[in-house]
Each structure stands twice: as structure tokens, then as C-alpha cells.
Write the C-alpha cells for this entry.
Amino acid sequence: MNSMNKLVEELKGRFTLLEVLLPDQQQLIVDIDQMHLHALLSHLKATGFRQLSLLTAVDWIEENTFQLVYIVFNWDTGIHVLVRTKLPRDKAVFRTITGIYPGAQYYERDVHEFFGVAFEGNVMSFKPLFLELWDELPPMRKDFDPEAYSREKFPERPYVPQFVPKVEVVE
Amino acid sequence: MTTNSKDMRKTWEKIADYFRAHSIWMKWYCTGCGAIEMPPTMTSRFDMEQLGMGPMATPRQADVLLITGYLSAKTLRRVIYSYEQMQDPKYVVGFGSCTLNGGIYFDSYATMTRLDHYLPVDLYIAGCMPRPEAIMNAFDTLIKMIEKGEAKGWRHYQENHDWYRKNQLHSLKEVYVKDEFHE
Amino acid sequence: MKEVKLFLGPQHPGMHGNYSAHMYVEGDMINKSYALPGMLHRGFEKLMERRHWMGNLALIPRICVIEPDPNEMVYAMSIEKLAGIEVPERAHWIRMIILELARLAANLMAIGGIGAPVGLYTSVYWGVADRDLVLDIFEKITGARVYHMYIVPGGVRKDLPEGIEEEILGLLDYIEARLPEFYDLVMRSPIFQTRTRDNILLPEEVVWELGVTGIGMRSAVNKEYDIRKVKPYARYDQVAFSLPYGPYSDAFTRVDFKYVEMAQSISIIRQSIEKMPKEGPVRARIATGSALRWRVPPGMVYSCVESARGEYGYLVVSDGREMPYRIAVRGSSYPQGLLGVEKYLPGHRIDDASLWMDTMGVCAPEIDR
């Protein structure tokens, strides 16, 4: 808990954080604007957060924003920091972090494929990865309906109740 | 020996089917999560070889194609590709509820819901996932079906190829597997 | 020599699951390679947004086939953190037993399965047969062989059946007696030694660059980096265990560490059976009324456990409704399975490619989701 307090103090002193949350004793959520995200991640990496555990996005359709979540981990203290930033949904373009965490390359490609967020500077991220010949909205967006897509593309087996045994009602 | 009205096979076909039924090569392709029950079936505990079946690595030498569980659109392209490489007679066994009606992934955008729309299925095994006992039982049934000449899915595929191809193209747009994926 | 394009997988017996690597080879050296994932993509993250919190229990174990229980554990942990549920003491210990049995099963499969790429097929038969005994125990506890759906938010689904402790201890004695035989069969085999010693190296810089966790990381960075040690969950802080670590990671070390970890799992299960409260509740009440109407307070939390291949985590976002708003899965083999194949598989020989996949611990379903 002590190292956590120190970390929070240090980050507050160096960066203008929009919000700081502590969901758990070894977890810290930090909101920051797009401009300072790279500086914050570089600082975290230099201070022991050497591993990028996950990069993903959340589609807040009611606010019309995408929220990018970068999860970095410090193996010595066991602290996860979730760095979050928001992007406008209609202009979802951001800069890559592969210069800081090279492992982010495929996570960015993943987010581009499933949310349509473009990462400038990561050329590979514009190619398809998991899906092949995809022609619809990026599937993890909230306005994409997988059931309708599945109905249209993959016809379902018509339900024939032939397996139900006929029961004669004795009166 | 005369051919009766139901069994239209010629004598040599009956003899051939008898031998086919008792030496089956199963194509070793894990298309989905049901494949995790294949190692116990194949190895010492349940021992598939007592039925005269063995795994085969290449499609051209294999007789049975197992669709072990869900099929994503991307896999289906490759499965069709390998199925068409297999030599006649060939048989398809669908594993689990996913191949029957989509199972737990009925509303997924990536997995197909009905296997017999794309490939002729001779036998389904119900369950999620089918236990090794169920798989052994299914193989036993398949052997009997081949012996009696009831497993005629491959002929159905030949005769109704246009229908199958239409369904495949409707769901997949292209069946051809590109190799220039990353360039 | 001419450069040739070559596909390894998806239909290839040396490939682990429905996964593919696209390679350019010259002679038998790999010059370039790319991973082709997505053959097992089922759209889990989307489907989980469309199911109730309780309904997701059926879906989550299916993300990783080899070791489904860490999925159930991280999901339960996330919900407990969000909703502030206190798990009964006995449930914690039962969870640990289940997780370690699952790790034991996964490691048995891995030690057995390593025989296939090196050409030592006896070990496949042994490993799979012994793993089946663990599955029998699972069947007695949970009713299912592979997908258990046993660890639920608030505890475990039901109490252990009577007398299962003796059966588990008997199984552990059996597996412990088998371990030296596995060592003689696999580790001391000249085929295996020649193929794996000083082959497929994983230096420390590569671990940090890719983000490799688990055995690969511990064998390279010379520190005991394990989620069970660094941020203990359940009651891992109350059992004594030590994990192998070292500064030099080749294929042999990584398989050897799996072997050592099996002994540690056995020791953890024994301690858990000894230390756990003999009776008491195993499931906290999480909701009044129907479980399908259950809501989780809004929030975002990341929770992770140590699976047999490394850090396995879920990012769970709730907006206070009956269904999750977003669940993102961090598969533990994601870094080495995608970026690792692209950057570090080149330079090896073709016949080492499936050995590479095996000892790096690439698990296709958790990458594709």
C-alpha cells in the first residue's frame, strides 16, 4: 500500500491527471488526455512498469467516444496501472505506442480490427488479423448487431418438433 | 447374389464397403474445441485403434473428416478446401451442438450455425463437448453405416454440388484460400 | 537457394490447435514468418456483452480449452471486486485445489505433448492417460470432464463430494510416483536432449520486448515472477511453495520447469486439503431474487491469475445493467503467439517450428477468442 501511495503522489506531481481511481489495493486507474498519454507511458516504463499486459478499447456509444485502456504491470511491486484516454468516436485516430512498448503492435492491430481505431505510425495495424473478408462495421462496436449478421449470413436450422413424442391424453 | 430394391450397391461395392468400414483413416484436423477429447480417444485409455481407426495427417489419404466443434468462417474456407482434396468415398462427422445449430455461439458473427448446409454430414454427435465414450459409440455407428452403404454423403455432395457451392458462397463470399495474407 | 513459401497449419499435426504460421523458407531455415490467427475466432467478447452476468458462466470456460478454470477464476474475481462480495473461507481453498488440479492436467498434457514434435510418441500416450485421471476427479467434483463451470462469483457452485479428499490424495501419490518415470522417459531421452538443449533461446530482452509471462519469463529473467507470488489471490499467500527460475532459457529449461512445477502443484494441493476448513459455506449469496436479474455495480476492474502459460487476465467493465458492458481477455500466450512468431521464429529450422510453438506455450483458442 505504501508503494501505491508513493506512485499516486508521484504521478499527480508530474502529470495533470483527469481522474485517479483505486479499485483494488494493487491497481490504479488513471485518466489522462491524449496529449500526455505517451509521456505518462514512457515515464511508467522507465519506473519499473516494463510489461504491457493489455491494450484494448471500450465503446461508450452514448458519450460518442472510444476509451482506450492501456494496462501496464510492474512485476516487482505487483501493481497494475490502467491508463485510460478518450477519443471522439467519429474521428478515431491515435498515435501508436510501439516506440515505447514494442509488444503493442498486435494489440493495436486487434483494436483497429474490432473497433476501427486507427493507430498512426503502426503500418501493420491497418491489415486484417482475425477476420477474413470482413465487410461490415467493426464487430466490437456497440451499434453492430451480431445476431442480425449471423441470421443473414449463416442460415439457421429450421425447428422441426419431430423429436417430441406424441402423448395420447387419456380422459 | 442379387441387389434388392433398397440396397442398390453392386456386389463389388458391398465387398469394398466391408473393407472400407474396417480400416478407416481419420483426418487429424482440430477445427474446434472438441479436439481436446480426441487425444484420450486416440491413446491408451479409450483406444480408437480397437475399431481399426487411426489418425492421418494428410487429407488425400484420409477417409473421415471430423468437424470437432464450432466452425468459424475462416476455418470453413479451409475445411472445404481440405474436404475437396479428400478422395472418394469420404465421410463427415459433426461433433457437438455447435455443428448442429450453432450451440452456444448461435448469435456469433464469426461462427456458422449449421454444418450440413456446407458439407454433407453423415453423422452428428450431440453434446458440448461429446465425451470419449460418445465418440467411440459414434465411430462404431459410422462403421456400421459404411458397411450397410448408408453413409452416402460424398455422393450427395457430388450430385448437389451447385446447391452446396451456392450456400458456401452466400456465407463466405469466396471459398478460395489466399496465401498472400500479410502482403 | 530458392526461397519457398510454406504453410505450417492449420491442418498440420505439429500445430497446436487450429492455428497457422505462414513461412518463407530457404533450405530448411525459416527466413520470414507470420502468424495467421483467427481460425478459432468466435467473437467471445461480443457474445459476453449479450449475455447476463450469470449466463456468461457457460461461455467463459470455452475461451481456453486446455485450461478452462483460470477463466472462471478471473471472471469470478472481477465480479467480486466490483460488487464487493466476500468469498467464504472454504471456497477459497476449494478454488485453489481446482486451479492447481487444472494446472497439473495442463502440464501433464504439455509434458506428454512435447513428445510429438521431437518424435517421442510414448510420452504422448503416458501424458494423456495420466491427465485423464485428473479429469476423472474433476468429473466427480463438478460433473464435467473439461468445462466445469464450477468457480462462480461468490464461491464455488457446490461443496466437494464426500470422501473426495482421499481420492485426490491417492491421485497425487500416483502422479508423484510417476514423475520420476516421466523424467527418465522425456528429460533424459537422448532424442529430446539433442533437440532441445541450447535450442530455441529466449533472452531476457525478448521477454520484456514481447511481454512474455509465465514459465518463459521465469526461466529468462532469473526472478520468481509469478502472479501467485507477486499479487496472491485466493489463499496462495498461506501455502508454502517455491517456483523454479533461472537466467538461461532454452527449450529444455522450459520443459524442465514445467516438470518441476508439477511437483509444486502437488504440494500446494496437499497443503490446501490439510489447511482448509473442514466445513462451512462455500458460496456467498450474491443477489436476492432471480440470478438473471442480478446487476453488478458500475466500474472497471482488471484481474489476473497465473495460468500454466502466464498472466491470464480479464478487464471487466460494468455500467450497472444486467449484462456486462465490455469484457476484454488477455490471453497469456498472445505476445509470443503473434509478435513472437513474426520476430523470433525466423532463424530456426522448419522441424523446430512446432517445437518452438510447444515450448513457448502458444495456445490458439485464447489468442483468437
